[in-house]
Design goal:
By secondary structure, the chain is an alpha/beta fold. The protein folds into three domains: about 120 residues, 3-Layer(aba) Sandwich (D-Maltodextrin-Binding Protein, domain 2), CATH 3.40.190.10; about 80 residues, D-Maltodextrin-Binding Protein, domain 2, CATH 3.40.190.10; about 80 residues, 2-Layer Sandwich (Double Stranded RNA Binding Domain). About 30% of the residues lie in helices and about 25% in strands.
Length: about 300
């Protein structure tokens, strides 16, 4: 095994925390290997004002890192899986999926709410996600969705600076950063919002041809997380998905069976189409659910090329 491995990562607090978690896991198996982090600035980092949909979707957080992989200046990269496009460059692969954290979203606010219906009429809610927006508005069409971007600290400050009733964040990021939420209340939206494909899971991307790195990464791969993620990403590929469309997909294991929930929604929340596959153990489940939703999409939610 190599004596030194270079890892590509964005330099945000969350990206660095996630990369260090991966390094800590690998060091248990490879204690003599030196792991060095190389920071890469992506288009998503440079352009913090425009919505993700306008600047190219989630892929704007990974393209430059993938370029570094292809140029062999890094050995592998750590991503939030939900930022990774459904189709990778031909010479790259996802070499490992560490055990998944919570995939769900939550509402962070200064006031305590026991459910979404408790929010005041016309409440201003911060999120830059069309997926979250469509699902929220389908339940509460009176809500005012305010687009916000930035790291978690920045978004929390916007509750006050933008006069928001609350913001929607992913549980996993809060957990990995050990965010101090003193002075805030957290409303779990597990039963309200279908998560983004891959949310809560890390993805480690590497070159297909680099067998030594692939073998190294295999030591920290969680097979159950991987199995669920393949269903979700197949679903997203069939829909041509990025954050330009409100798409939710979540596969999970329970009592030896796999379950999969898929969703598409109009950004206005007027149209929400869901499908559930139980059990989801057979191959091709993601494609079948995507085909089912597309067949029921009479509203142009998912636009063709």
């Amino acid at each position: 095994m190599r004596s030194k491995v270079i890892i590509g990562s964005r330099k945000s607090k969350l990206a660095m925390a996630q990369t260090k978690l991966v390094i800590a896991a690998l060091e248990k198996f490879f204690p003599t290997t030196i792991f060095e982090i190389r920071n890469v600035v992506t288009e998503g980092d440079r352009n913090r004002q425009a919505s993700l949909a306008k600047i190219g979707g989630k892929g704007v957080f990974v393209k430059e890192i993938e370029d570094e992989l292809e140029n062999q200046t890094i050995d592998f990269a750590v991503h939030s899986l939900k930022d990774v496009m459904p189709t990778l460059p031909a010479d790259l692969t996802l070499g490992a999926f560490p055990k998944r954290e919570s995939p769900f979203d939550c509402l962070i606010s200064h006031a305590k709410f026991s459910q979404l219906t408790d929010l005041p009429q016309g409440a201003r809610i911060g999120t830059n996600s069309l997926r979250r927006q469509g699902q929220l508005l389908s339940i509460r069409p009176d809500l005012k969705i305010i687009p916000i971007r930035g790291n978690i600290d920045t978004r929390l400050k916007k509750i006050d600076s933008e006069n928001l009733e609350g913001i929607i964040l992913a549980n996993a990021g809060l957990s990995r950063l050990k965010v101090d939420l003193s002075g805030y209340y957290v409303l779990d939206l597990k039963d309200v919002i279908v998560p983004a494909v891959g949310q809560g899971c890390l993805a480690i991307e590497c070159r297909k041809a680099d067998q030594k790195i692939c073998q190294m990464l295999d030591q920290i791969n969680d097979p159950q997380s991987e199995q669920c993620i393949h269903i979700e990403r197949e679903f997203m590929r069939e829909l041509g998905g990025s954050c330009n469309f409100p798409i939710g997909g979540y596969a999970y294991a329970k009592e030896g069976k796999l379950f999969f929930n898929g969703l598409i929604a109009s950004p206005s929340g007027e149209h929400v189409i869901k499908a559930e596959r139980v059990p989801a153990n057979n191959p091709g489940v993601g494609k079948r659910v995507a085909d089912q939703l597309l067949a029921r999409d009479k509203f142009g939610i998912i636009e063709g090329d």
